[in-house]
């Protein structure tokens, strides 16, 4: 009495991605440490995800004060919560159905929050208008991306929808695309140029795809995960021109827009550049931009709050999009509250402003300091190299592995960087993601780790990594 | 520059379900009332969903106190929050990654919460054991059902997976099944017998399905939505025997288990009955049971917290289930906190017990009183009849419509009960769901409305409904 023999063949072909294999090994190691089993390290450090709170980075107080008061409205009268946080909570509760965050948000999201997000975008983009009705609030940006792929992907055989996807990239997107039956068309970022997005490579990828599938969209991640690339305005203009010429829909993943490292780098949104390019681009290129409360200094990964803004969509497509977001994209009031505060934080003069800006600045300082340490320490280690990390939450470090490592991995039937990560986890208690999970040029090997962690811990990570690496390299030399 | 011509044909065939058409009309009416446009009613009352907070039923304080303290841990020192709520918050925070509810919950759900749920099930089922590792916490029970359908549904043509689904039922399940490519095999509940689930009808449905599809699972909703049926132990035993004999997987939707109306009705879980039936049933019949924080006295619909318990699954299928729930089913820490409190509420002797039990009892009293009023008022209205409502949150009322209504509806190309609901909404400001959205026997017509609302409002609803109904019937007689 089992339906195994009949289980969907698609299901059977799904395997745990390498990252999850490592994560479940990490969970086992944690249990063993708790049971007192001796290891060469006292504590496991998991830098595999961008979940900064899981590593002890503290949430932003203002956000949590508003949430607490929304949860339990008696706190609207408590002086443990600053006046502006109470005020915000009051207005969010007024906008919740029945005045409770336990009710279901309206389709598309709470009206007040959609307005906040739209104002935020307009301010960010130097006045480029944004329409609240074209913004959909979802359960994290991943859900918004998945819904969008459902809308986009169709066809069979050589007519299947193709999407140009950067390599390296983050694996959840590629999995969602495959899941939807779409074809991934890889374009390689140029590592030697700081993971630059080069137009010849986009051209090559598109040409190679034609005939195999129907390339309809171009996915970009800016700032990059895992590349750390932040595109210049010029680079964005080139991509937009390319999309216009090739009639590609632009899927722009801008979830890391709040984390830019250093004064000399600036985030400019695709939408802003598109509008500032003027006609015909500004009125014809179709674009969807994604953002989230999971990243940046908020790091509210567990809240699952995200949005997508749709630009220049055909009104008929817009109607379908509406149906889709209405049916599948709901989100929780909590996630939407977090978005409201991301979009409309305390301003100079508000009671909560000093603490808020101090907390945000402190996390930004931590990130910048970590970026600098990663760069200076790891670029000094023989057999490692790391491009500048201009934005985002990750370091993506190349490993120059000896031929013997590659051979031994091949014999074991595992990717060389996966083997490296397994040993790094077992021997040094560091959980990082192998480059093979993100995609990389054939014959190159990488590791990815999150830089969102306290400075002392980052120091410990770098020491463990350096020491493991030199042992490992010696063993195989 | 539009991908409309290429948009997925599946997408194009999706239409807004009738309930959403009514809801968007309702939203328009609300706006018009706010603008001061005169109507025959002062306020719109929306009873189309089970979202009780949206209609002003207050959340349970203990739950919200724990949530508030989890959001903003400074409140762990505030005496605005009772000691046991603070204690609970502390223990939930300890179990959250990094001590923050903003971190991502572990795959499957927080260990503490899975244990609470497992203990809850064991207590509820008189000691039948429950394994925390076989419980998966999800973003609402709807997500758990959808993930399960992904696992279950496969095949093409006459080999497509069929699922027996009660009629009437709740439309989201049928849509998810269709979406997954599964075949809905309807079995009709017997209205005259208080919507009883009869074995001959199950047999008939199964026979009719064979050859058209591959019936693999039986979906039951107990207590029923919209039927209000609560199955007896004997009825459940019959269904289990049928499932065993026909080798059907049991999908048991028990999200309304906390709302049983009146002393003479009792909820018994399928799992309990299964185990008390003993061998061979207890070790062979595969079963998945779903529960949620959306319903009952909690009504935390917007929190999106649910779970599924899997029983007797083949270990190989279990492995696939794990992969699926790991990949798609994440949930938020907030939803899991709500589940923890559903599963482990304050006990006699705890500081919060008196208020907690008073709040729960008050909601139960409201529901019972509403059930009685619906029954006594509507069964006295010519052209209406209502079976006993033993459980759940809905009244499902039969309309005995004159032939002329049916003809006029046919001319207008709309279902007769949909026409009734549209006019009820426009003329009396009541938003309810037509029976055609739930499924009903050909030639019978119904409306469904939620009974989770304050008594005064229910009184107003019944008066408006009665008055509209008699006008409507007179118009067509
Ligand atoms: C580039 C990118 N896009 C989207 C997401 C998904 O974010 P969310 O948590 O909003 O679903 C991630 C998360 O890792 C990401 O790295
Ligand atoms: C029978 C039934 N099952 C499941 C659900 C979904 O509940 P949740 O909010 O947990 O996703 C509903 C909601 O209306 C329902 O009526």
UniProtKB/TrEMBL annotation, chains A, B:
<dbReference type="GO" id="GO:0004021">
    <property type="term" value="F:L-alanine:2-oxoglutarate aminotransferase activity"/>
</dbReference>
<comment type="pathway">
    <text>Amino-acid degradation; L-alanine degradation via transaminase pathway; pyruvate from L-alanine: step 1/1.</text>
</comment>
<dbReference type="InterPro" id="IPR015422">
    <property type="entry name" value="PyrdxlP-dep_Trfase_small"/>
</dbReference>
<dbReference type="InterPro" id="IPR004839">
    <property type="entry name" value="Aminotransferase_I/II_large"/>
</dbReference>
<keyword id="KW-0663">Pyridoxal phosphate</keyword>
<keyword id="KW-0808">Transferase</keyword>
<comment type="subunit">
    <text>Homodimer.</text>
</comment>
<feature type="domain" description="Aminotransferase class I/classII large">
    <location>
        <begin position="83"/>
        <end position="465"/>
    </location>
</feature>
<dbReference type="GO" id="GO:0030170">
    <property type="term" value="F:pyridoxal phosphate binding"/>
</dbReference>
<dbReference type="Pfam" id="PF00155">
    <property type="entry name" value="Aminotran_1_2"/>
</dbReference>
<dbReference type="GO" id="GO:0042853">
    <property type="term" value="P:L-alanine catabolic process"/>
</dbReference>
<keyword id="KW-0032">Aminotransferase</keyword>
<dbReference type="InterPro" id="IPR045088">
    <property type="entry name" value="ALAT1/2-like"/>
</dbReference>
<dbReference type="InterPro" id="IPR015424">
    <property type="entry name" value="PyrdxlP-dep_Trfase"/>
</dbReference>
<protein>
    <recommendedName>
        <fullName>alanine transaminase</fullName>
        <ecNumber>2.6.1.2</ecNumber>
    </recommendedName>
</protein>
<dbReference type="InterPro" id="IPR015421">
    <property type="entry name" value="PyrdxlP-dep_Trfase_major"/>
</dbReference>
<comment type="similarity">
    <text>Belongs to the class-I pyridoxal-phosphate-dependent aminotransferase family. Alanine aminotransferase subfamily.</text>
</comment>
């Amino acid at each position: 009495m089992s339906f195994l023999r009949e289980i969907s063949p698609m299901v059977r072909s799904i395997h745990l991605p390498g990252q999850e294999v490592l994560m479940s090994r990490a969970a086992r190691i944690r249990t063993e440490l708790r049971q007192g089993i001796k290891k060469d390290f006292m504590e496991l450090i998991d830098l595999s995800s961008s979940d900064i709170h899981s590593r002890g980075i503290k949430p932003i107080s203002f956000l949590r004060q508003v949430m607490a008061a929304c949860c339990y409205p008696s706190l609207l009268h408590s002086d443990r919560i600053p006046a502006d946080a109470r005020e915000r909570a009051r207005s969010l509760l007024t906008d919740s159905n029945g005045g409770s965050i336990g009710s279901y948000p309206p389709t598309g999201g709470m009206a007040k929050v959609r307005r906040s997000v739209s104002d935020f975008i307009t301010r960010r983009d130097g006045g480029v208008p944004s329409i609240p009705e074209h913004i959909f609030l979802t359960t994290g940006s991943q859900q918004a991306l998945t819904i969008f792929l459902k809308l986009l992907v169709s066809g069979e055989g050589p007519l299947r929808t193709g999407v140009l996807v950067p390599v390296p990239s983050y694996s959840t997107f590629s999995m969602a695309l495959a899941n939807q039956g779409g074809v991934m068309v890889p374009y390689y970022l140029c590592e030697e140029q700081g993971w630059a997005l080069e137009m010849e490579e986009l051209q090559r990828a598109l040409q190679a795809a034609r005939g195999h599938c129907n390339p309809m969209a171009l996915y970009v991640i800016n700032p990059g995960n895992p590349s750390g690339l932040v595109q210049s305005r010029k680079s964005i203009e080139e991509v937009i021109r390319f999309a216009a010429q090739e009639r590609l829909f632009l899927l722009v993943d801008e979830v890391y827009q709040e984390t830019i490292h250093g004064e000399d780098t600036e985030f400019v949104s695709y939408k802003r550049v598109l509008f500032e390019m003027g006609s015909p681009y500004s009125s014809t290129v179709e674009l969807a931009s994604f953002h989230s409360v999971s990243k940046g200094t908020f790091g509210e990964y567990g809240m699952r709050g995200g949005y997508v803004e749709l630009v220049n969509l055909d009104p008929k497509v817009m109607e379908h999009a509406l149906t889709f977001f209405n049916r599948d994209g709901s989100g929780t009031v909590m996630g939407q509250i977090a978005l409201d505060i991301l979009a409309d934080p305390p301003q100079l003069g508000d009671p909560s402003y000093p603490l808020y800006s101090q907390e945000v600045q402190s996390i930004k300082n931590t990130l910048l300091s970590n970026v600098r340490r990663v760069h200076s320490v790891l670029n000094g280690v023989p057999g490692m190299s790391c491009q500048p990390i201009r934005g985002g939450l990750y370091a993506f470090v190349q490993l120059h592995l000896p031929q013997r490592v590659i051979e031994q991995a091949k014999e074991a039937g595992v990717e060389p960087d996966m083997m490296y990560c397994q040993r790094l986890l077992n021997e040094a208690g560091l959980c990082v993601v192998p480059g093979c999970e993100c995609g990389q040029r054939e014959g190159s090997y990488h590791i990815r780790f999150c830089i969102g962690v306290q400075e002392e811990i980052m120091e410990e990570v770098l020491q463990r990594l350096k020491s493991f690496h030199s042992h490992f390299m010696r063993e195989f030399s």
